[in-house]
């Protein structure tokens, strides 16, 4: 990104040399992202991030479909990110019927319910590739097969924002009509994303103007951001298997250590359920979660208490509720996320800090 900024950078739609340079960089980035997703470069729409991509996928597909709003049905899993759930709810306000599909106790979509819900009225099915809170990986390819069998007119959208760093995106999202990504989840800059759109989808633009991105998303493109996204994805893909193994081993060490050090620790996701390598979700009872988060943060151990709303307040997690986790357990939800550069020393230090903080806070209760 620094290299790109160091040279003259025009508007990629212009004709002079700095514009041509910008266009070349943008189109190279597009090709790189397309190759990693197993798509054609013409399928790639650059956006401002995962949220915009989800809005465009859902509302753009509904608007582009030749079906009256009152006749359209959208199915989505109950554990989708708010970017997806709220887009579906916005669609519901326009008369579209939205059905949230249940997940089992592990957070995996119940496929029999999906099969029963599919009908000739279904326009779109949204099932995320992996969950942001628990890291649980959804059976996207099976969902695609089921949709093709029972509702071939419907498009399938998968929010792959969390999966970009560790999964083979071309493989796990194969067959989906719409796939979203966000740069800052793979080590790139915040504020850039992608929506891959298969040629068969009649996507209506949500943002109108100069017709950039093949009329699907107007506005001058963020060339520097696109280069950052493509570079981050390329680097993640180059070391995917090695990083996955390394990070999963550290995550397991953290899980085992926490289990040994903290009595009554609840593992939210049962063993054997496929998850992203960097995610560890647990519920710790008998402590005030906010106090625990503050105590950990002061020691440099940065974890998440679940989903936080824009104000930063902790809200009951819709993901845990959908999984049937009791409110008492969910009140102690903690999400640890390891990165590609997390070390064994980081894990050992986190273990010591978390164990000490939980022990001392439990004494106070
Ligand atoms: N989808 C998932 C699964 C996410 O985890 C996030 C962000 O955390 C988003 C969508 C939204 O992406 P962005 O922050 O780039 O808008």
Which strand order spans the largest sheet, edge to edge or round the barrel? 1-7-6-5-4-2-3
Bound molecules: pyridoxal-5'-phosphate
Mean pLDDT over the full residue set: 95
What fraction, in percent, of the residue positions are helical? 40-55%
The biggest sheet amounts to: 7 strands, mixed
Q: What ranges have pLDDT less than 50 throughout 5 or more consecutive residues?
A: none
* Radius of gyration based on Cα positions: 21 Å
Q: Tally the helices.
A: 13
The class by helix and strand makeup works out as alpha/beta
Commentary on this structure:
The strands form two sheets. The chain has a seven-stranded mixed beta sheet, with helices on both faces. Helix 6 links the parallel strand 4 and strand 5. The protein is globular and about 65 Å long. Helix 2 packs parallel to helix 8, helix 9 packs parallel to helix 13 and helix 10 packs across helix 13. The protein is an alpha/beta fold and 365 residues long. The model has no long low-confidence stretch (mean pLDDT 95). The structure holds pyridoxal-5'-phosphate. Pyridoxal-5'-phosphate binds next to helix 3.
